Amino acid sequence: MRAASRTALLAAGLLLGGCYNRAEDVAQLARQHATATGRVALLECRLNGRWWYDFEVDGKRRRGMALDPAACQARRVGDAVTVYYNPARPEVHRAIAPAAAYEAEHGFHVPEWLWFGLGALALPLSALMALRRGGRRG
């Protein structure tokens, strides 16, 4: 039983460790960033306040998504927005202040694959438990 307990603790530790987002790209963006003027490209305010923006750096057009319900309601397609990007890695960008983006993105989170994994395990585990209970009665 001790080996099973250790294995369960190890699995839980690995799972929790995998759920921690260090958000190193956003932390670097908070330390070093430049700004560009972007435009609101698409609004999906009903889906958690998601909206997309386009901007251009060094002749290359880039697109990003922001999750901000309050701002989404106030925006219109074509509105100008300030985009913060890392000059060394322009693919790292946000349409909210980098410090606020870091606060929102780092820390523990439950990845979507975990919800599907737990759902996929629920039925076989409940069947196994039912079989074990049935075996004890007979």
Break the fold down into its secondary structure elements and pairings:
Blueprint: H1 2-18, E1 20-21, H2 24-31, E2 34-44, E3 50-57, E4 60-67, H3 69-74, E5 80-85, E6 93-94, H4 98-105, E7 107-108, H5 112-137
Antiparallel strand pairs: 1-7, 2-3, 2-5, 3-4, 5-6
* Largest beta-sheet characterization: 5 strands, antiparallel
Biggest sheet strand order reads: 4-3-2-5-6
Shape designation: elongated
- Strand composition percent: 25-35%
User: What Rg do the Cα atoms give?
Assistant: 22 Å
The overall average pLDDT, rounded, is 83
**Stretches with pLDDT under 50, minimum 5 residues:** none
Helices and strands: which structural class? alpha+beta
H/I helix tally: 5
Indicate the percent of residues in helices.
40-55%
Find the count of extended strands (DSSP E, 2+ residues). 7
Q: Please trace the helix and strand order, writing H or E for each element.
A: HEHEEEHEEHEH
**Cα separation of the termini:** 25 Å
Key attributes of the depicted protein:
138 residues; alpha+beta; 5-stranded antiparallel β-sheet; two-stranded antiparallel sheet; 5 helices; 47% helix; 28% strand
